[in-house]
Design goal:
mainly alpha, single chain
């Protein structure tokens, strides 16, 4: 009878140890998951910020391209006007 009790106690201790190992692994997994969620949130926020900044740069680039085209057209008109004035004097 004492051997049975001792055997049951040992088995119970072994089960408790196994459950503590599982709980410990669960805590590690939970901490890792929480950390991953936080990192994903931070990365998502940064990506939104970068997207907004990129849109702003694209808008500015579009305006600069439009202005550059206008300046190039004005230069062509001025060059034509100068050419016409030179040809009239000749």
């Amino acid at each position: 009878m004492t051997e049975d009790l001792t055997s049951l106690l040992e088995q119970h201790k072994k089960e408790i140890w196994e459950w503590k190992q599982k709980e410990s692994q669960w805590v590690r997994d939970r901490n890792q998951l929480d950390g991953s969620k936080q990192m994903i949130g931070e990365i998502s926020s940064k990506m939104v910020e970068m997207g907004k900044a990129n849109m702003s740069h694209q808008e500015l680039n579009g305006k600069l391209q439009t202005r550059l085209t206008e300046v190039e057209e004005d230069n062509k008109k001025l060059a034509k006007q100068i050419e016409d004035l030179i040809n009239r004097k000749i």
